[in-house]
Design brief:
Elements lengths: L2 E3 L5 E3 L3 E2 L6 H13 L4 E3 L7 H11 L7 E6 L6 H15 L4 E6 L6 H13 L3 E7 L3 H9 L7 E5 L7 H9 L3 E5 L15
Parallel strand pairs: 3-4, 4-5, 5-6, 6-7, 7-8, 8-9
Antiparallel strand pairs: 1-2
The structure holds NADP nicotinamide-adenine-dinucleotide phosphate.
Length: 198
């Protein structure tokens, strides 16, 4: 699969399999296992999706070597602090049954973002996370984090689709070295997108 190079050289598969709203454990496990069998190599979960354990089982059952997969999880708002990241990330790893994740994101721009970022930088240096990033950050907040910390966020996962093109924001993030990543690339099926003539 085609990949995109992040600002620290890590390559992210351009197409990911999202697991939002797959909360029923057997369904999440099966969906991830089958997605990997179908060719996906990039799986996106989050602490708030309540399915990290099932996603981890699906990954293990796929039989695909760990180093061929790219796994993302996200720190939920209540854990966005130095201590919150350290303790909740360890729990996420345990639930996923993994030694490291490929991408860890701060899910929303709330709580102690700076403290959380420091913990993520340390975990990255310790080899527990290959790339660190943010999600749903407005450009000004993303740039603020990038300018006043050692590590420039590798990714900002935001809503991008035909109804939410964000062209200027995408340009601004890229010029800062932050790779935009789309969530809801099909606009969550809204606005009758699949029948839109354009
Ligand atoms: N960082 C964040 O805050 C955030 C927020 C939202 C999502 N995400 C991530 O992004 C992932 C993807 O986003 P998403 O699932 O919200 O939205 P999406 O991929 O834009 O849209 C999914 C919707 O499109 C429909 N769909 C897809 N292909 C279709 C087709 N060929 N014909 C008709 N309908 C089709 C699906 O219908 P069916 O349900 O019938 O398949 C589903 O309702 C999530 O799983 C999650 O990992 C992140």
């Amino acid at each position: 699969m085609k990949t995109v190079k992040l600002n620290n050289g890590v390559e992210i598969p351009i197409l990911g399999f999202g697991t939002y709203q797959i909360t029923e454990p057997e369904e999440a496990e099966k969906a991830v296992r089958e997605a990997i069998k179908a060719g996906y190599r990039h799986i996106d979960t989050a602490q708030s999706y309540m399915n990290e354990e099932a996603v981890g089982k699906g990954i293990a059952e796929s039989g695909v070597p760990r180093e061929e997969l790219f796994i993302t999880t996200k720190i939920w708002v209540e854990n966005v602090s130095y201590k919150g990241v350290v303790t909740s990330f360890e729990r996420s790893l345990h639930r996923l049954g993994l030694e490291y994740v490929d991408l860890l994101l701060i899910h929303q721009p709330f709580n102690d973002v700076y403290g959380a970022w420091l913990a993520m930088e340390e975990l990255q240096k310790a080899g527990k996370i290959r790339a660190i990033g943010i999600s749903n950050f407005a450009v000004d907040k993303a740039v603020d984090l990038a300018e006043f910390n050692e590590v420039v966020p590798q990714v900002n996962q935001i809503e991008i689709n035909p109804f939410q093109q964000q062209s200027k924001n995408i340009e601004a993030l890229k010029s800062e070295g932050i790779m935009p990543e789309a969530w809801a690339p099909f606009a969550e099926g809204k606005n009758d997108i699949f029948n839109n003539p354009i």
